[in-house]
Structure formats: structure tokens, C-alpha cells
Amino acid sequence: MTKHGYARLVTSKKITDEPAYVLHRYDWSESSLILEVLTRHHGRIALVAKGAKKPSSNFRPILLPLQPLHIAFGGDAEIRTLRSSEWMGGHVMPTGEALMSGYYLNELLMRLLARDDPHPALFDAYALTVHIIAQEFRNPSEEKAERTEKSATPKVLEVALRAFELMLLREIGFLPTLKSQTANLANLQDDTAYVLVPEGGLRAAHAEDRSSLKGQQWLLLQTALDSEAPFSQLLQACSACLQPLKTQLRTLLHYHCGVSTLKTRQMMIDLQNL
Asked: pLDDT tens string for the chain (274 positions)?
């Protein structure tokens, strides 16, 4: 039996008290919604929330993106049925740039994460990133003030996004080892520049490459990924190479998503140009 077939068999029974986040929602009927949900133990799944659009529905106020939930669901079809949902609290809905950053995470997961493919470590990294998003930018006025205060240091939000991107690429198998060059398995030299190339892996930088990281920086990122607490270690490692790492990861993510610009990225650009 395949991995996906086993996951579907397991979820044919009723699942209760499952940590989850809503990634996307769209209309199914006049009164119901289809949800794309990230769960900790069952991966990305599709659920029908019957009656969720009715004013009297208990689902209506809590089935929102970026909010921690515990859900119960069942069924053996591709789209299962949501039985109950409980908001776990902890933070308010982010706004402004933070909200768009959260939608960016969701778009990456919708494009790259297959259904019924559980990644508990990725779920935990997502939950931590959403928490950072909510805490770092609680409202537009605070966001502006914190930008001013932190102008000389890496933005916490951007560091968290880079750490999550690395976790995502590693978990779904799109990130090569960062300990050596991919083609010849040669060890990285601390002071030599290297670039991450889609389908080509890690190689020595060429003169025409837009950005690169030194071998020592790639090695620090790999050490963080291999640690017992990879996300927290990545927060430290990413802060030391934030801008060149952003360029490297954006190229890789766009390639695997099959787009030149993600929708949420374009929306952020458009908002900044208003």
C-alpha cells in the first residue's frame, strides 16, 4: 500500500482534537464551504464545512486563516467532512504586511505540499512562524514604529520567512544537502561563494550570478537544519545572510511553483506602490 493510500485509510475513521490551520477556503454551495487545511498528523487535507456560511453557524467566526484550531473530521472521500472546530486562541488576526506574509506562507503550502502527506516538523515550523507574524506586527501603527526601531537590524518577520522556506524545501525534498557541492560532492570552502541552482543544487558562484553565500554560511544553515530544534536554530543562521539568502530561495521556490511571481508577492508589490 502506498504512503498516500495508507494515510487515506487511516483518516476514513473520525479524527478528533487535531491541530490545524485553514490555508484556503472557497464556496461549495449557498451555505457551505470547502476548506484546504494544514493538519499536524494528516498533512494538507480538503474538508467540507456544511452550513458554515449561515449566520447562526458555529463555524462562521473561527474558520479563518492564520488562526490555531483543533478540529474533528471524518469520511473516506477525497473531501472529508468537518465535524467540529475549536479556536485555540493565543493571538489576534495580523494586519498589513504581516497578514500578506501569512497569506504567502499559505500560498507556498497550497502550491508545493501534496495532500495526505503529513510533515509534523513543518506544521510546527508553520505554527511558530504564524505566532511570530502575529506578535511582531500587531497593528499597522506598531508595524511602522517597529520598522523605525529595527532599521539597522534584520527584520524578525523576514528571518522567520526564510527559516520557514528552508524547512519547507527540506521537508518536501527540494533542498539538496548544503554541506557540499551537488555535482561533484566537493566540500565547501569557508570563504568561497556558492549559489543554489534549481535542478543543479549547490555549485561555486559564477561572475554573472546575482547573489551568493559563502561556504561557511551554507554550512551554518545545514547545521541548523540537522539540529534537534531546526526552526529556532535557522532563525539565528538566517539572520546573518538575510538578503542573499532571500534571492537564492526565491529563485528556487518560483521554479518549483512554476511561476515567475507568486500571487501574494505581486499583491505586496502592488500595495507598496499605492
From this structure: 444 444 444 445 789 999 999 999 999 999 999 999 999 999 999 999 999 989 889 898 899 999 999 999 998 888 999 999 999 987 778 888 888 899 999 999 999 999 999 999 999 999 999 999 888 665 444 444 444 444 333 488 999 999 999 999 999 999 999 999 999 999 999 999 999 999 999 999 999 998 999 999 999 999 999 999 999 999 999 999 999 999 999 999 999 999 888 888 888 777 666 5
**For residue 255, which phi and psi values (nearest 5 degrees)?**
-60, -50
* The three grid cell numbers given for residue 123, joined into one nine-digit string: 506544521
Domains of the chain: 3-87 (2.40.50.140), 96-272 (1.20.1440.120)
Model pTM score: 0.88
Q: Distance between CA 212 and CA 154 in Å, rounded?
A: 18
Do residues 170 and 249 make contact, with C-beta atoms less than 8 angstroms apart?
no
Q: Any idea which residue has 475549536 for its cell?
A: 86
- Residue 45, helix vs strand vs coil: strand
Determine which helix (DSSP H) or strand (DSSP E) holds 197, and give its type and residue range.
Answer: strand 193-197
d(CA 30, CA 53): 7
Which cell is 27 given?
A: 464556496
* Encoded amino acid at 17, one letter: D
